[in-house]
TrEMBL record:
UniProt-listed InterPro entries: AcylCo_DH-like_C (IPR036250), AcylCo_DH/oxidase_C (IPR009075), AcylCoA_DH/ox_N_sf (IPR037069), AcylCoA_DH/oxidase_NM_dom_sf (IPR009100)
Full protein name: Acyl-CoA dehydrogenase family protein
Keyword Oxidoreductase applies: yes
SUPFAM superfamilies: Acyl-CoA dehydrogenase C-terminal domain-like (SSF47203), Acyl-CoA dehydrogenase NM domain-like (SSF56645)
Pfam families in the cross-refs: Acyl-CoA_dh_1 (PF00441)
Domain spans labelled Acyl-CoA dehydrogenase/oxidase C-terminal: 185-319
PANTHER family: ACYL-COA DEHYDROGENASE (PTHR43884), ACYL-COA DEHYDROGENASE FADE28 (PTHR43884:SF20)
UniProt cofactor(s): FAD
Sorted UniProt keywords: FAD, Flavoprotein, Oxidoreductase
Gene3D superfamilies on file: Acyl-CoA dehydrogenase/oxidase, N-terminal domain, Butyryl-CoA Dehydrogenase, subunit A, domain 3
Transcription listed as a keyword: no
Species, as recorded: Phytohabitans kaempferiae
Similarity comment: Belongs to the acyl-CoA dehydrogenase family.
Amino acid sequence: MTVNHVDRDLSAMINAFLADQPAPTFSRSPQALRGRLRFDRSQWQELDALGLARLTTGTELGGSGAGLPEASILLSSAAYHGVFAPLAENDLLANWLLQTAGLPIHGGVRTACVRREPTEVLAVPWAGDVDGVVVLDVSDDGCWVSDLRSSDFQTSPGSNIAGEPRDDVRLLSDRSERVQVPRSVAEEFMLRGALARAIQMCGSMSRILELCVDHATTRQQFGRPISRFQAVQHLISDIAAETALARMATDAAVREVSTDRWDTNSAKFAIATARSCAGHASSVVVPNAHQVHGAIGTTLEHSLHLYTRSVLAWRSEFGSVSHWDDVAARLVTEQEDAWGFIVSGESPATVV
């Protein structure tokens, strides 16, 4: 991710630390192809000690006080290096909800979810591994935030297709304090999660591109590297083009939100465009990458699946590809000057 105005020393530190991390490990699980990703608690403690676990949380609350551009570097680099942890969930979602509600931020790691049913929430990221879940209750009467400790809920293990924990949460009690927040918080929660997944997808697709180039230049067929074959060149060039397009759209969304509010039409359009571009890119990048790698790319021993499966999993979280296509189209068609809105992102009114 190449976002402007990011401290180069911080970016170098993030990449150096994540590049040095061991490969992820899995436990046996009937819910996932290879198993369920293990949450590395010691790795998380190192991230926390470096100030990366609460990167955008305010310094007055024990965070690092960085902005979204810095968070995008962290999320993209983590995805690129195959470091799977609830970085977006803990910082951009859970801690942000607590800050918005004026609730204290304690130590440990948290995830976040939206609850619309009385007692159960499905597929909550990392719920069985964290110390607490920040719940955003959404109903016709309004929105409330509560911070649940592990003793307040029960989890049933599950996984997405990448093996990341996606656990069902059942509440055991409602003893936690509930603070009412504006309805706009629910929409911003969705936008934050959607942009985080776009950033992560771009990180993984960049790694997929690198794996394809490396394999094509080293794999010999008929006495020469397969990169010399025009069909392989076309596959890789399409991967590169789609990855670049998704990355540019996502960088633009990060810049837009960093200089404006999340609730403006321009911010919503930028995020919808990023998610649309990243989602459609994945439909080219993933099959092309496996075609370049041939049979070895379908094995669990090769690292390719870590990135292709994560891209496919993330593209359906916080809204599907078609959902974000529809959002982008709706925002454009509701403008009096549609072309001016597309090229400038400016709009006199906010669409609810």
